[in-house]
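Example record

One chain of 95 residues, shown exactly as stored in the release files.
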Amino acid sequence: MVLSRDQHDRMANAIRALAMDAVEQALAARDRDRLAELVPDRWVDDCAASGPATVVREQFDAWADLGVLPIAVMSSTRGGQLVAIRELFAAFSSG
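Predicted structure tokens for this chain:
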């Protein structure tokens, strides 16, 4: 069966809506394990830059190549927001 572009788009939107309903239910239930199952790594990778400095720089560069200017909302596993800001600046100053 071959779908028309319209049929494809409507089906894709319906599937995304079902997935989003499941995410919202898991959020409401504070079910972190279920959220981890529902939210694909690819989506997280497209929306967030995390990891070693080289990976963060690569993600920012990839976004810039697409014309996307990121909004940095920083957090660090080693401390609060000030630590994260220092880490971000260090990541870009270490080239």
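Notes: The chain has two domains: 1-39, 41-95.
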